[in-house]
Amino acid sequence: REWLGRLLADGKRVIGPVDREGLRIFRPVDSADEVTLESGKTRWSPKEFLFPPTESLYTYKLRRDGPELQDPPLAEQDQVLVGVRSCDAAGLVRLDDVFLNGKVQDPLYARRRELTTIVAFACHEAEPECFCTAIGGSPVGTEGVDLLMVPFGDDWLVRPVTDKGRALVSDDWTPASSRHWSLAEDQARRVAQQIERKPIPEELAALLESEFDSPVWKDVARRCLSCSICA
Predict the structure, then answer these.
(1) H or E segment to which residue 70 belongs
(2) Which of 56, 60, 167, 179 falls between 20 and 30 A from 185, CA-CA?
(3) Residues near 2 by beta carbon (within 8 Å), at least 6 away in sequence
(4) Tens of pLDDT, residues 78-117
């Protein structure tokens, strides 16, 4: 919490899991004491802080010679997403594939992504709905992660993954020993063994790919209410 307090004092926008009215959700915090450090997933992913549900794409003024369009201001404040799970961090990489890797990038998303550092908390218990290992992930996965923090008794093991992550590491932290990391790897294996969901057999995956244009999807879409439960 002292470290989170220093990030806030440095003028960074810190977003972390907080408990509000029975839900654990990501919200910007004014104090490190607001952040929940206990294990467990949030109700929703932190996606909204990179790709909000709604935002202004432009403003306009009506002139005599026609409308004058103005782009919205780009984000300026560095933000740190703290307490992200490895599965959600990997999900953000899929957003990058859509908004950053095409011929035309989304400037609003790109700017927020540039200013964002992802600090992930490794899982030390699996939950019934977990499935990261079934799709090549891990409870301590680092895809999309800048800094991975592993809860370890009363301490945290910290693994910088990118330059953004290394920039957040404090000089007064004690270097971990190889024994600490060995125990952390044992913990990761234990959590992975708790996950019961298995990968989809390759023959079924191939069948789904071959039926991408099947008319059955049109029938499903026709009856869709956009409730998002399937997602």
Answers:
(1) strand 66-70
(2) 167
(3) 32
(4) 999 999 999 999 999 999 999 998 788 899 999 999 999 9
d(CA 156, CA 176) in angstroms, rounded, equals: 10
Q: Closest by alpha carbon to 118, among 154, 78, 152?
A: 78
Q: Which two tokens stand for residue 67?
A: 């409308």
Question: CB–CB of 158/170 below 8 Å?
Answer: no
Strand partners, 59: 70
Which tokens belong to 8?
């806030």
For strand 66-70 and strand 79-84, is the pairing parallel, antiparallel, or unpaired? Answer: unpaired
C-beta of residue 213 within 8 angstroms of C-beta of residue 146: no
Each residue's pLDDT tens digit, 194-222: 999 888 888 888 898 899 999 999 998 99
pLDDT at 83: 95
Beta-bridge mates of residue 16: 27
What pLDDT sits at residue 152?
80
What does the pLDDT average to over 168-193?
Answer: 89
Strands 66-70 and 13-20, sheet pairing: unpaired
Cβ neighbours of 58 (radius 10 Å): 9
Tell me the C-alpha distance between 212 and 209, whole Å: 5
